[in-house]
Design a protein that fits this description.
heterodimer; A: 399 residues; alpha/beta; Rna Polymerase Sigma Factor, Chain: A; 2 domains; eight-stranded mixed beta sheet; 10 helices; B: alpha/beta; Rossmann fold; seven-stranded mixed beta sheet
């Protein structure tokens, strides 16, 4: 619980809901007859409407990127480290828009919404959505908000992929695209982890072919497992050693226990939880499974697997960028093995092929893929300086 | 503007695309952008320098030159710059090749080890020269491939690289008649304007 809202917080935020009546054509060929988007905004839109920034969420994120919903919230929005007055995405300068994507489970139309055809939950009948579909809905939202051009579209991981898709799909509608800890497409290894996550969910006896809500239950065990395996891929070996390696045994040198802290001080010689890391993963997984929808998790992992903007350009992503005239910032983290620096460099190479304005940083950080959510000084300073420059450009261009 | 940088900027056509290898804090690229409307990108590995570039609005890519420039297309830049970095590279000869693959023209500057001060230091003391400009010991210096003006001339000849212009300056970045006559003896910094033959 927070006692008082910190001064660099956007404060207590009330999400807004937007309803869209026109049918939405999806990449799959299917259609949503109408849809809702739940949105949070921080900061003020300027008179020229030039200072709007779109923040795109990753796999398990939502519209609640910064601030609090209530004074007794246990923690702030998922990217509070970077969004707020004076922070990297400075709400004193920018009007920040953050939404829950369709297929999500935080208020936008998704598997937990009512299917107008049946009057029941969409559940497994919710169409598979892609990053391109999301960007299309974000563009529809942009028109509703009467924003002519984004100063920046920003995201980490799957969010960064949306920023890349923006630069391709609506190249003239953004001043800059910021892709943090992203990839041009998933590798076999990435897809493999996603498939393990999906199998965990669908093999849970409470999955009921995705119709668990109708039966008033949910595949918690499966979703817990999915999150556990996902969580491992977000951390680095070293981050785990540090996090779970605080105890020093008599026979060990300090910091030398490889992250093997025990939960109860001794081995059980059974198949229960022995190590802290096990207990931590159980806890994280279980907490996640209580707050997240399993069908949404399936959809999000599919959106990741399907993301490959080069497909429309004969496999050559650089051709996809040929119309883009926005500025690009890409950032990767040294110990990220989910989307390692090489993956960001692949995007940089494709941008260079078509002479794009690109800035690329490789941040030394221990925290693995999770680093993009954390206030790592060099990363935050670079993002802030970059966005300040963008702000100066949009405000001088407009005058 | 320092005389050497002034000379370099005079070789850059207005509106051209410039790649600066080891761009430091982006001072030169920023200058070329304002004075020549040049579109520049810098490569750098020093964190502080990279941050300075971002603050200046200079496009910078964090990239180690020793790992090659394979991510850059042939003929994608008008000029590729390499200022005071040649001597710190693992494979300077290959990088010069790469410069002229990527750029139509190249500009290279390096400390001339054939300078009389270096010669005198080595001749009298019998030890590797240490100066204000090169303050390191032989074992911890980042400058692992020193060369002289004559050496670099020979490299260009061997690689069939056309030297469009060559000049030398002293540590105050100024030239004089003696340096013009005996560049390899009096010049402290060598500045080359190169192109493919």
């Amino acid at each position: 619980m927070i006692n008082s809202v910190p001064s660099d917080s956007v404060g207590i935020i009330k999400p807004k809901e937007f309803h869209f009546d026109n049918p939405l054509e999806l990449a799959s060929g299917r259609q949503l007859p109408f849809f809702d988007l739940i949105v949070e905004t921080y900061g003020e839109l300027n008179v020229n409407k030039s200072n709007a920034v779109l923040v795109c969420h990753a796999l398990s994120g939502d519209h609640h990127a910064a601030g609090y919903h209530a004074a007794n919230d246990r923690k702030a929005g998922w990217w509070d480290a970077c969004i707020g007055p004076g922070k990297a995405i400075d709400t004193d300068l920018f009007f920040v828009v953050s939404l829950n994507n369709i297929g999500g489970c935080s208020g936008s139309t998704g598997p937990t919404s009512t299917n107008p055809e049946t009057g029941k939950y969409y559940g497994p009948d919710f169409p598979v959505v892609t990053v391109k579909d999301w960007v299309n809905t974000q563009f529809i939202l942009m028109k509703r908000l009467e924003i002519p051009k984004w100063a920046a579209v920003i995201g980490g991981s799957l969010g960064g992929m949306q920023a890349i898709q923006w630069a391709i799909s609506y190249s003239e509608k953004l001043h800059s695209a910021i892709c943090i800890a992203g990839a041009p497409k998933l590798s076999a290894q990435n897809i493999a982890f996603n498939e393990v996550a999906r199998q965990s969910i669908t093999s849970d006896p409470n999955f009921f072919e995705g119709r668990y809500l109708e039966k008033n239950t949910s595949p918690k065990k499966g979703l817990t497992l999915a999150r556990m395996v996902g969580h491992i891929t977000y951390l680095s070996d070293n981050a785990m050693r540090l996090k779970f390696g605080k105890t020093v045994m008599d026979f060990e040198k300090e910091g030398n226990n490889f992250g093997r802290d025990l939960r109860s001080g001794k081995l059980s010689f059974g198949f229960n939880v022995d190590f802290q890391v096990e207990s931590y993963l159980h806890y994280q997984g279980e907490r996640f499974s209580e707050n997240f929808d399993a069908n949404t998790y399936l959809l999000m992992t599919k959106a990741l697997d399907y993301f490959d903007p080069s497909v429309d350009y004969g496999g050559d992503l650089s051709r996809g960028f040929s119309e883009s005239n926005c500025d690009f910032l890409l950032i990767s983290f040294s110990t990220d093995w989910r989307f390692p620096p090489e993956r960001s460099r692949e995007i940089v190479e494709d941008l260079l092929k078509t002479n794009k304005e690109v800035t690329y940083l490789e941040i030394e950080a221990d925290q693995g893929h999770d680093a993009f959510l954390l206030p790592i000084p060099r990363y935050v300073a670079a993002l802030k300086s970059y966005l300040n420059r963008i702000y100066n450009e949009i405000t001088t261009n407009a005058s | 503007m320092r005389p050497d940088l002034d000379l370099i900027q005079s070789w850059i056509e207005p509106g051209s695309r410039v790649l600066d290898l080891g761009c430091g804090g982006g001072t030169l690229l920023k200058y070329l952008k304002t004075s020549k409307n040049a579109r520049g990108i810098g490569l750098e590995i020093n964190e502080k320098n990279i941050q300075n570039c971002i603050e200046k609005g200079v496009r910078v890519i964090e990239q180690n030159l020793d790992k090659g420039l394979g991510n850059f297309q042939s003929d994608s830049f008008d000029t590729v710059l390499l200022t005071q970095t040649l001597q710190a590279l693992h494979k300077p000869d290959l990088l010069v090749d790469e410069m002229l693959r990527i750029g139509t023209k190249g500009i290279v500057t390096f400390p001339n080890f054939g300078n009389w001060k270096s010669r005198l230091y080595l001749a009298t003391k019998g030890k590797m020269p240490i100066s204000k400009f090169m303050p390191h010991q032989w074992y911890n210096t980042p400058n692992i491939h020193f060369c002289t003006v004559k050496d670099f001339d020979a490299l260009c000849a061997a690689k069939n690289i056309k030297v469009l212009a060559r000049t030398v300056v002293n540590s105050k970045h100024q030239g004089n008649w003696a340096m013009k006559l005996w560049p390899n003896f009096f010049g402290e910094t060598a500045i080359y304007h190169l192109s493919r033959n």
